Every structure is written in structure tokens, then in C-alpha cells.
Amino acid sequence: MSEKQDFLAQTLAYNHIPFPIIIFNQEGLITWFNGHAERIFQLNTETDKGQLFTYMNPEQAALHKQPWESLLESTDPIRFENMEIGLGSGGQTHSTIVTKAFTSHNERFLMTVYETDDSANAESATRELNHLRSGLDDSFMMLYFDKEFLVTYANPHFLKLSKWTPKRVLGKPVWQMFHDGEADVEFVDSILETLKEGQIWNGEAKKATKDGETYWVDLTAIPMQLSDEDTYYIFLEKDITDTKHAQKHLEEIAFIDPITGLENRHRLEQAVNEHIREGRHFSFLFLDIDRFYTLRDVSDTDTENELLIEFTKRLRMYFSDSLITRAGLHEFALVTPLPNWFIEGFLPYLQQHPIYIGGTAVPLTVSGAITKYPEDQQSFVHLIKASYATIKKVKDRGGSAISTLTADDHERLNRKALIEKRLVHALDRKNLQLLYQPQINLSNGNVESVEALVRWNDDEIGVVTPDELIPIAEENGMIHEIGSFVLETACEQLKDWKAKGINLRISINSSIREFRDKDMASTLIEQMKANNCDPRSLMIEITEKFALEAEAERPIMQQMNRLHQQGVQFALDDFGTGYASFRYMLLLPISSLKIDRTIIQSITKQEKMQKMIKGMIQFGQSLDFQVTAEGVETKEQLELLRAMECNSIQGYIISRPMNAQELEKWLK
């Protein structure tokens, strides 16, 4: 066997799977087999490699109406059911043969798995499985999942690389081992669907450590079904992070956009960093073709490419002394010494030099952002972030403009960067606090509930409201720490108020990321028990986006139902602004609706808005929901809501958010 094939055999996880496995080259000759195949078929390394095999070769494949060439070209596994095969001991058995083609070192191979029944000697099989597990533990990162895809075992190799501890990883859902982007979730779902169908999944996978760092593995996921009721799954992983990084680096350096001939984003970052190291002043120009998807939808691929090529020609003609790169599908970035007035002249230049395709002028415009170094931003990352912020502002105004950072933009970006930096210290030093905004029951005038709102008054940056803090915390991954602080503080406050004879319910806001942690419900229950809190005194507010995602993720629904059974209530917050759905209102344990303040603010301005709000109240009450109106500020708004028989209100007309001591005085 060649060195390439030898390397392949040594690195395949299938070498450890307890089924006979044989690998053939494209001529149908044996190139490798595992120990199980060697024993079952009594194959010999010296005499059988390089030979045809009775139960899988080009001639046998043709007999089963599967040309050998089609097996080699297939991207999906192919099954041969109920094949009669001979054992090395002389007996006969029936087996399913599964074939899977793959490429290694530019050569095509066919792997065959023989699902034989080799359970005659149970004691021997048990010993073999024990040896197998021991060998896997020594060679691979290994995870066991139960039928709900919750971790039941993780070996030391996995714990070391992923930075999890046994206490923290057991019971975690499979999604916790990966990033939570849309593409990542779809990728994990595809693996799980394959496993649920009883098939093995193998390939490269991008995973996340406990701290959110990315690493890559060669993953083999295996379904194990001992009986109809006893199913579990094994993940075998080999770390290939260094290989992936080296491959990515080579691709980034070597890649030139084949359509436009421009250098790519990696070269852009290199050029910017070189300019920064040399202390050179420059303008960073970011251009985004307006309505690109609309232009693309009305054309074919060739027309789309022609459009990009012609646009690139105009960039090169106008910005002849600048570095021009293609930064995305319809995004271009330039490093240029040119002044703003000249850069902004590119828009009329485009109008004077229109792009014609098929004899028709394409109505192409661009939105642009000019960010200066070092006056505006001082690093590549911040130049990119500032550009995206400016582009968004331009597109919100209709596009077809090139804009620079305003004083307000500078202040907003600098404040965001400072918040990200100071938030870590604030959590370490417990500088966050909870304020409480009361809700009044309109039928009896009593204060029965308060909403807990996170406030942060920093010595350097001043007051940071939840509307500003929470999106930043979700973006940088600190939302879990903030959620833990809110939960702990709210439970301690309920305990304190109970001792003082104050009977109030506290509403806290929660995010979908917090509920993806399987320990969420357990942690909350433990906190309530530690502070002797009545679970009915706690309400969790979720958004419509949260509800929509929770409906699709069974572990989240299970946690919500577990808390609901304990007495914890759930409210649908910001109702009317998101993805309203009758389905999740029926499936999730929701008992309250909170109409968003932006809707309430319009209640006195339009008769149609009044009718809509009244309909929302009646709709909620028809489902036995308590309905609360948020953001009530005027007496006129209050009286309209009272006439509509809204259950309760919250807003400045009652009180602004207060700390616990202020609220206690206010209640008196």
C-alpha cells in the first residue's frame, strides 16, 4: 500500500468501528481492511491486499445493477440489502453492505461496511467492546449523548480541548458544543437528522469551546440503538484545527477573486495594517452596491458577473492610485490617499459612465462610507465596524450617497467600545443594580407586580440603560453573566420583601441564549429555594422572537414547562412588534401579554390604532391572558386603556424605575 493510502488508513475513525470494513481503490482492488474484517473473512495482509474481493468488486456491483463507476462518483452512501456472504469459518450469513466513496490525495476510494451479526459469543463481544471503548478514549475526543442529545459522558481529551469540566458539561445539549449562528444551527440539525435516521455521519465540523473559541474536528457521529427504547449517540472527534488554519491561511493568501480580478479581504486587512505600522494617513472607503439582490434576481449568472466586472472597471479608472479589493458579494473596500471631495465625485462619475448590459443601462447606485485613519478609527476592526455603521445610516436614508462619520457617529462608536471594555469590570465588581418599575391593576388600583430592569451607572461612561446594554452583552457573550446577576438579585429581593410583609411579583427579562443552557431551570429553582421564594412571585418575560425559536427547540420548551409546573409564570413582552404566532401561544406556558410601548404611544393619534389595541386586548383575554400596556405616560392614554378594559398598565404616569428602597417608600 502507498504512503498516501497508509496515512488514510491510520487516520480513519472507522478503523475502530465494530463492523468489518474494507476499502477498495478505483479498480476494485483491496487497499485496506480493519481487524474485524480480517477476523470475519480471514483476510491476510500479505496475500489479500491488491486482490479482488468476492462480496464487493466491479463485477458483483454490476450484478446488483450498480455500475462500479456510479459507486465511485456517488456523494451519498449506497446500501445493498440482504446480501448472502460467506464467513471465513466456512458458514454463511446475510448482511447489509453500505458503500461510501471518498477522495484522498486526489485518488478515489470506496469504503464498504458489512453489517454482519457476530454476536454468537456474547462474552467475547463484551470484552471486545470494552477494549474498543478503551482504545477510543486513548485515541479520540469522545462524547456520549442520550436520545434527547444531552451529554452523558465526555472523555478527558474532549474536556482538555473544549475547556469544559465534567460538572458543567454533563446534561448540556449538543447545540452547546457548537456556535449558535444560523448556519451553525442548520449544520448541527443536519447531523442530528442523519443520526435519527439511523445513519452514521462523518465530516469536518466547526465547534466552540466553553469560552466560545472556535476549533475544528474530524467528526464521526454514530447512532447506537440497543432496543426501541434505548438509543444513544457517540461522537468521535480528531482535532484538525492547526490543519484548517494552515489551509485557510494558504487560501487567503493565494486567492484572487476570479470574477473581478481584485484582491480579497485578507489582502485588505494586510494593507491596512501595513499602513498603520508605517504611520501613514489614509481614507478607508467602503462601497456597497444598492439593491444588489434585486439587480441579481432579474438577471442570470453571466449578467451578474458582467455587472461586477464593469463596476470594477469603473473603480479602477476612477481610483487609479488606490488599493481596491472585493470585500464581499456586493461590497468593495479601498485604501486611498484621495480627499473626500474627490471620493464623493465617484457617484456622478457612475451616472456619467453607466453600465450597459444587453443594450440596456443598469440603474446601479452605491452607498459608501469614508473613515479616516488615524482621525476617525485606529485599527482595521474598528474601521470595518465604523464603515458598517455608516453604510447602514446611508441605506436607511435611501442609499446612493457616500457619507463620513459625524460627531454623533464618533460618540456612539466610542461609547459602544468603552461599554464593551468596562462591562467586564462592572460584572467583576458587581457595579450593576436592579431598578423596579411598578405595574398597576386597573380594576382595583393595586400594585401587584414590578419589572426588574438592569441599570449600570459607571464612573467613566455614566448611565447605561437596558436598551443599550443588552444588545451589546448579547453580541459579546456577556448576557449569561448579566442574567445570573438579575436572577440572584431578584430572588434575594423577594426574600427581603417577604420578611417586610411586602407581597409583590417580580418580572425579569430573559434571552434565548440563557435557556439554551440546560442548567437554566435548575439554577433558577435552586435560587428560589435558597431564598425561600414562592415561585408564583416570579415572572419571566420573553420576546416574540424568543418564543418562535423556543417552539422549535424541545429542550427549551421542556425547561419552560418545568418552571411553569413549579409555579413560575411567563409573559410575552413587546407584543405587536415581532413574529406574532397563534401556535407558540398555545404550545408555550404563557399567561400574560405586554403590549409594546411604541404601540401605546400612538393610541391617542389614530382611531385605527385604538381599534387595533382594543383588538389586541380582547384577543389576549380570550386566551385567558392578563394584558399589560407598557409605556403609558399620559392621563388620556390611561383613560382609553381603562375603557378598553386592559388589565394593568406600566409607565411613567405611575412611576419611573426605582431602586428597592425608593420603591418601598413609594408604596407607603
UniProtKB/TrEMBL annotation:
Coiled coil regions, renumbered to chain: none
All copies of domain GGDEF, residue ranges: 280-407
Signal peptide range: none
Residues of the PAC domain: 201-252
PROSITE patterns reported for this sequence: EAL, GGDEF, PAC
SMART domains with a match to the protein in the record: EAL (SM00052), GGDEF (SM00267), PAS (SM00091)
Transmembrane domains' residue ranges: none
Residue ranges annotated for the EAL domain, each copy included: 416-668
Classification via InterPro entries: Biofilm_reg_signaling, EAL_dom, EAL_sf, GGDEF_dom, Nucleotide_cyclase, PAS, PAS-assoc_C, PAS-like_dom_sf
Pfam families (UniProt xref): EAL (PF00563), GGDEF (PF00990), PAS_8 (PF13188), PAS_9 (PF13426)
This protein's name: EAL domain-containing protein
Organism: Planococcus dechangensis
